[in-house]
Amino acid sequence: MIAQARSSLTFVQLAGLLASTATLLSVSNADTGIRFGHDIARISSEFNSVFPAGNFNRNVSTTFWQTSVLVNNSNVQSDLNRILNVSFIAYDDSFYQLLGVAGYESPKQLEIIFKFPPKPAFATRQVHDGTVYAPEAKAIFFAELHVPSPGYSADAMPWVWRIDLSNQSNPQTTKVYPSPQLTIPNGAYYHNGSVFWAQEGNYTNPGGVVRMDPITLKTQVVQNNFYGHRFNSPNDIVITKTGATYFTDGYYGTDNFNDSLPALLANGIWRWDQKTGNIRQVAGAAEQAFFNPNGLALSATEDKLYITNRGKTSDDPAGGRTIYRYDVTTAGIKNREVFAYVDAGFPDGVKTDRDGRVYGAVTGGVDVFNVDGILIGRIKVANGDTAVNMVFVGNWLYIVGRDNAYRVKLNTTAV
Ligand SMILES: *[C@@H]1O[C@H](CO)[C@@H](O)[C@H](O)[C@H]1NC(C)=O
Ligand SMILES: *[C@@H]1O[C@H](CO)[C@@H](O)[C@H](O)[C@H]1NC(C)=O
Ligand SMILES: *[C@@H]1O[C@H](CO)[C@@H](O)[C@H](O)[C@H]1NC(C)=O
Ligand SMILES: *[C@@H]1O[C@H](CO)[C@@H](O)[C@H](O)[C@H]1NC(C)=O
Ligand SMILES: *[C@@H]1O[C@H](CO)[C@@H](O)[C@H](O)[C@H]1NC(C)=O
Ligand SMILES: *[C@@H]1O[C@H](CO)[C@@H](O)[C@H](O)[C@H]1NC(C)=O
Ligand SMILES: *[C@@H]1O[C@H](CO)[C@@H](O)[C@H](O)[C@H]1NC(C)=O
Ligand SMILES: *[C@@H]1O[C@H](CO)[C@@H](O)[C@H](O)[C@H]1NC(C)=O
Predict the structure, then answer these.
(1) Measuring from atom 2 of ligand 2, which residue has the nearest CA?
(2) What residues does 268 pair with on adjacent strands?
(3) What's the structural domain count of the chain?
(4) Which residue segment(s) compose the domain that 14 sits in?
(5) Is the pTM of this model over 0.85?
(6) Which of 209, 216, 346, 387 gives a 20 to 30 Å CA spacing to 235?
């Protein structure tokens, strides 16, 4: 169940919540292979093998629970509709351990900690990406992302948001204004006392990597070219403890926003060594694997690198929607494998935990995979929202979507 942060729950909401807990608990419908608790739905393996209605279909822009049942099977349709009312979907019992619950009957809360104001009128959409936690500031930073309005006034540009966690039971989310201003910031990573942003750039400011002091919010461009070539639209970034920096670069600026020069470099993953300054492409051009690579995550032990690929559009069924896994070597990455292909949207943000699980932010929520790439469960965001990125702070996973920021307490940590 999705609840407001405790401070903003009204008495009426709270009463309703308690009443529904009592009436909905643990009703099951053996027919469809879906069992319901109040907050968790458990999908059986039989369901995954044979869909419980004879005719069905689902297009690329929908979620699993929006599958159309094409024969009259009211049980299946009503159970799919009931998934709208839960916050977690378990595909495997190991998901209960992550949630720290005994089973699907147990209560489990996903909190909405902030509702974003409406997107600017001139923008067709707005997303929130690049979640990163800076311990010095006790704060999470993430970027809003929308096309800037011509005129480029301060309000017309995408800025940065901060969730102040100095009081963990009362997170405060506000817009902040780094200086000099970032130029379409996207993914971010915390390293060595600083937040490093991957920024897309625009016609007049080349994209690249920008370092930001998490306290003063002062920024400094630290990487912006490959021997004089501009990058296309740097999207996400990770940095190993020794300073090996990986960032993805796709055609987002040109294709989504038409706000940057036509691409001159291949889509790919770049490795910038902060110690030597060496910059080189380590995946992409040579193997043709990527079209608009996007999210990046290192495993907790920094021996694996996860890279997501969007494809031409967010729901491109061919080539997009994939999380690839590489081995990290001392000089780069090798051994690409398909780690997971997701069924809704594409994994924009991707993160890992200390137990080897991988989290992908997709349409409808966050997919959780075990270390073998098996989908064990989903954390659903509010109906209609799309999860964009997330970050662990201790046991809490903070998720930013297009519409809201959320958090859920999990039985793991990032490292
Ligand atoms: C996809 O399916 C959903 C639900 O059935 C429907 O609302 C939507 O219009 C469909 N979109 C396309 C592109 O067919
Ligand atoms: C399902 O039932 C409705 C009314 O009960 C009917 O109008 C419709 O044609 C039926 N559809 C199928 C595919 O049998
Ligand atoms: C979802 O919950 C609402 C509010 O408790 C209820 O009115 C509705 O019937 C539920 N929907 C399903 C499909 O169970
Ligand atoms: C939390 O996870 C550990 C394994 O990492 C497990 O032993 C423990 O039982 C889990 N706790 C709960 C409450 O599920
Ligand atoms: C933290 O926030 C909670 C909830 O608003 C409040 O009750 C508590 O007094 C705050 N703690 C501090 C140290 O300000
Ligand atoms: C590029 O971004 C900068 C902010 O970093 C802004 O001042 C400038 O107006 C933008 N230019 C264009 C052409 O979008
Ligand atoms: C951390 O930053 C300091 C300067 O503030 C620098 O000397 C050092 O090399 C950096 N270490 C890494 C691993 O990036
Ligand atoms: C993209 O922007 C350029 C320069 O502002 C403009 O000439 C061109 O018409 C735009 N293309 C589209 C498809 O909007």
Answers:
(1) 72
(2) 249
(3) 2
(4) 1-25
(5) yes
(6) 216
